[in-house]
Amino acid sequence: MLHSGRSMEKKTRTLAGVAAIFFACIVVLSAFVAVYADSVRYGVVSGTGGDGLRVRNGAGTGYTQIGYLSEGATVTITGEKKASDGVVWYAIDHNGGTGYISSQFVTLLTTPEDDKEFEAYLKEQGFPESYWDGLKLLHAMYPEWVFKAYHTGYEWDYAVDQESVIGKSLVQSTSKSSWKSTDPKAYNWDTGVWTVFDSGGWVAASREIVAYYMDPRNFLSQNSIFQFLLQSFDANVQNMAGVERLVDGTFLDATVTDTDGKKIYYPQVIYDAGKQVGVNPYVLAAMIIQEQGTKGESHSVSGKHPQYPGYFNFYNIGAYATATNTAITNGLIYAKGGASGQGTSYGRPWNSRVRAITGGAQFYADGYVSQGQDTLYLKRFNVQGDNPFTHQYMTSVWGASSEGLSLAGGYSEELRQAPL
């Protein structure tokens, strides 16, 4: 049990961490999501032909699209309505609010209420009952997956407050207003302008959206759960085919010529890097896509930065904006070896794609995985260790969730059903 280092007179609600060792790790948090009504149901998006399903703000195709769900996504159904054409639409939990999806593309699931043995296990682990339905459903779908509760000892409100400190958790400036903080340090009430804290228009997140992304109960579905996956390398589980599935359709799905003139195949480089440093290569691929986007058009990986040509930083390590430099520039300064150009840790200078991918993977293994931040969730929300709420890999409030969805793409259905 970890403690915050200060006395807490009222520990009525705790922030716990769940590790799902299906090579996953779930964090148990409590007190943000309301307890679902008895009528709640669960479903899986299916029959879309791989195209996914639009989420709308009302029951019918005439309503505005507010989101998108991939084929196979699990949804929590809280109600239903008939559209004007007679088609039933399900109301679902979506991004902290309510969205609507057509029932024609949803297969209903039944939570196994009679699984008393698994329920006893959850109770023994110390999972609050508000976790049980989601975990029981996942257990029914993937019986080989193992979930372990990790209790941090922090009060929920205290933890959310720490992650809501202005500048620590960010959303894009194009996000809906309710996702953005209106604290005077983050928003000018006279001009109606939000303060930008990072290049690319990233502004302070509202406490409510921070709480949503911190609460694991919002992500107990078959793909979102992967942000809690334990990150060690395992050749019995991870393979080249999985890396190729994960990067399919992105800039990493390619053979390119490196700076030494040799041809390299990105999936192979990523797999070899993970094996070498002891980190799941699917995690490395998901991190790169999260940092560089699917097209990889940033100068961080182009090798064509006007000031630092021939240098690469695939994981954006040290990439933060300052008064004198952009985040990309500072990231490439780090890749070169620091301002003096003499730093050689982690294989620097990263003057080739292979050196950057492998060296960055070693940096991540040493600085995060070996320090107890061995899930995407703990990398983003560090609710453990001697320096909690610090040393966090990213400021994007949805970073762990987004990387988790990318990571899920590396695991085929056949692999998910196999003993891990």
Write the layout of secondary structure elements.
Layout: E1 14-20, E2 41-45, E3 53-56, E4 65-69, E5 74-82, E6 88-94, E7 97-102, E8 106-109, H1 116-125, H2 129-141, E9 147-155, H3 156-163, E10 170-172, E11 187-188, E12 193-194, E13 196-198, E14 202-204, H4 207-214, H5 240-247, E15 255-257, E16 263-265, H6 266-277, H7 281-292, H8 299-302, H9 327-336, H10 353-367, H11 376-380, H12 399-408, H13 413-417
Antiparallel strand pairs: 1-9, 2-5, 2-8, 3-4, 5-6, 6-7, 10-14, 11-12, 13-14, 15-16
Integer average pLDDT: 86
Strand content: 15-25%
Quickly count the helices.
13
Write down the overall geometry. globular
End-to-end Cα distance, whole Å, is 27 Å
Structural class, by secondary structure, is alpha+beta
Low-confidence parts lasting 5 or more residues at pLDDT below 50? 1-14, 16-25, 29-38
Work out the helicity level. Answer: 25-40%
Q: C-alpha Rg, in Å?
A: 22 Å
- Per DSSP E runs of 2 or more residues, the count of β-strands stands at 16
Q: Summarize the biggest pleated sheet.
A: 5 strands, antiparallel
Q: Helix and strand succession?
A: EEEEEEEEHHEHEEEEEHHEEHHHHHHHH
Strand order of the largest sheet: 7-6-5-2-8
